[in-house]
Amino acid sequence: xxLNARVSxxxxxxxxxxxxxxxxxxxxxxxGVIGYVGENSAVRHSTLGDDVKIGDESYIEYSxxxxxxxxxxxxxxxxxxxxxxxxxxxxxxxxxxxxQSGEIINSGAKDVGNYTDAAQMGTQETANxxxxxxxxxxxxxxxxxxGKIFDFGMxxxxxxxxxxxxx
Length: 167
Hints:
The protein is an alpha/beta fold.
């Protein structure tokens, strides 16, 4: 376990899984075996499958992530479902999105639901509005994450995970 990594009392960290420095697994989240959560990343109200790798400074909330998934640095995933063997790049925003098994999401992509489907159906105005909302969500989330979400301290229900040196 990394320095200041925390697992809430109602969350589960699978065998062989690692939380890096400052990482959090909270709010009844479950992480499968042999997973990794990068520095200063947080997982809340979510289920992660086996062998899920999450980069640094990423945030996942109210989402289900399949097995053998890679998620890049600085990625924000809220209310989404990620299929097995998906690859999500750096600085991606997914809000109420469905990522199919094996799908690759390029770095910097922003997706709120299926705005691309709305554009293909001839509702470009709707697609643009949703895309703008995705950007707004990203901005608001970054402001929210800046010093707030990772400052759990010793709130009731949270306990620090001791490194082997501290045990």
